[in-house]
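Researcher: Please translate sequence to structure tokens.
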Amino acid sequence: MQLKGKKALVTGGAGGYGFGIAKVLLAAGCEVWITGRNEAKLNRAAADLGAKAVLADASSGKDWDRVIAAMGGIDILVNNAGYGGKIVPVAEQNDEDILSVIETNLTGVILGCSRAAKIMCAQRSGAIINISSVCALYAWPAWSVYTAAKAGVAKFSHGLYTELRPYNVHVTCLTPSWGQTGFNQAANISGASEDPAKASQCTSPEELGMIVKNILETPDHLAIPDLTVQPMIQDICPM
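Model: Translation complete:
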């Protein structure tokens, strides 16, 4: 895909990976729109980036309709919005905790893809990148609900790939691991990002943005259904 002039939507673009992805796509010449649920943070990010912003909750179909209508078309969708919720055993979570994680991380991705797919199939071009998590590949205590949502993103992406391939629409499930994103702080857990020496060796938002750009610029006759990225410093045993 030639990125100059393409309309791109990055959900959860007010910080973390979403901010880095939006920044790289803007530099490549895209018209970039970002969404988020924190209005003040979203507006600051849009001003810093030079992007267009729409206050929206990824788990709301009505919000998705507003975003797509405001954009007036879409060539690239990066479903980045995510939410760790309470990283505790499922026995310690209530229904609201569980549903909020599933709705933000999985339902929101499906709602967005449903709308983007209609447009992209009609124009017979487009690209969708759904951001999963390394949790979808492995199992750790207290991560079961988040893992289920992100694994759902991966399998949904595979099914979507088969549906959209005949229309020349590319679908990729991008699976990052440790990153410089503030995820641990938001989820009230400890990890590599609290150690400055280790954090510098984790994936930065702009590095993931460059990976997204590389996926989009892959020759049109090739596809990347899955791509996993993890820092060398992270030891996952057993793999």
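Researcher: Any highlights?
Model: The chain has a mean pLDDT of 93.
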